[in-house]
Design a protein that fits this description.
Number of helices: 9
Oligomer: single chain
Number of strands: 9
Largest sheet: 6 strands, parallel
Bound molecules: 2'-O-acetyl adenosine-5-diphosphoribose
Shape: globular
Structural class: alpha/beta
Strand content: 15-25%
Order of helices and strands: EHHHHHHEHEEEEHEEEH
């Protein structure tokens, strides 16, 4: 089986009703990113309650959202390819659509960990809110299991290895604006076929075939095209 990697971003979940970050009326237009999504805001500036509230809202919204046809089509590709999903999304819609091999580069909304604990100690919390005073068994304040600006991306190497082995790379719904995740496209081996699905133009220094459609339409088109050539 050929190896296929899907590098996804907020755009794949847009048709599930989850806002992207940088489109007009996107999340970063309505919330100051430096206040709600930076390590400094939590650890140095004491904005814990504001940040918890922001991610509690995202988690509640996720509870009420459902995977769309793009997530489902990605999951369906496992019948034909050895698929790895490397997502920048903190939602669980790929998993809920049936994908079995998902790397979360920027963390997961449905997990939490102690604020001074290792990344890999995170535990499932489902769709529960995290509050000031919500603690680990050892009495440490819980924080969202999100990679904030200013923090390392622990899953990056794993994703880079997957991209480096891929025969096909599908980039879907990401502006490729945030590093180091955006730099993953540079790990492709010679001969890897690269497709990008996005209704808008996205600039990248790698060469790709642009399917200029929304994720639901573009993923189905690409799936049909790819399975014809197996
Ligand atoms: P962006 O909001 O930067 O980009 C979303 C992309 O999705 C844009 O290129 C849109 O054109 C595209 N898009 C919008 N609707 C779409 C649809 N229906 N189908 C397909 N594409 C669509 O989101 P990301 O690239 O995911 O990180 O952002 C990367 C990171 O920036 C996020 O993980 C988050 C954010 O800051 C952190 O919070 C650490």
């Amino acid at each position: 089986m050929e190896k296929l990697v899907v590098l996804s971003g907020a755009g794949i979940s847009a048709e599930s009703g989850i806002k992207t970050f940088r489109d007009s009326d996107g999340l970063w237009e309505n919330y100051p990113v430096e206040e709600v999504a930076t390590a400094d805001s939590w650890y140095s500036y004491g904005r814990k309650a504001l940040m918890l509230d922001f991610y509690n809202q995202r988690r509640r919204q996720l509870r009420d959202a459902a995977p769309n046809l793009a997530h489902k089509t990605v999951a369906d590709l496992e019948k034909y390819f050895d698929v790895t999903v490397a997502t920048q999304n903190i939602d669980n819609l790929h998993e809920r659509a049936g994908s079995t091999n998902v790397i979360h580069l920027h963390g997961e909304l449905t997990k939490a960990r102690g604020e001074y604990s290792d990344y890999y100690t995170a535990q499932d919390i489902g769709y529960q809110d995290i509050l000031i005073g919500s603690k680990t068994a050892k009495g440490e304040q819980l924080r969202p299991h999100i990679v904030w600006f200013g923090e390392a991306v622990p899953e990056l190497d794993k994703a880079a290895r997957a991209v480096g082995n891929a025969d096909i790379l599908v980039i879907v719904g990401t502006s490729l604006a945030v590093y180091p995740a955006a730099g993953l496209v540079h790990y492709t081996k010679t001969g890897c076929r690269v497709y990008l699905i996005d209704p808008k133009d996205v600039s990248s220094s790698v060469r790709f075939t642009h399917i200029k459609e929304k994720a639901t339409v573009g993923m189905q088109q690409l799936r049909n095209q790819l399975i014809k050539t197996i």
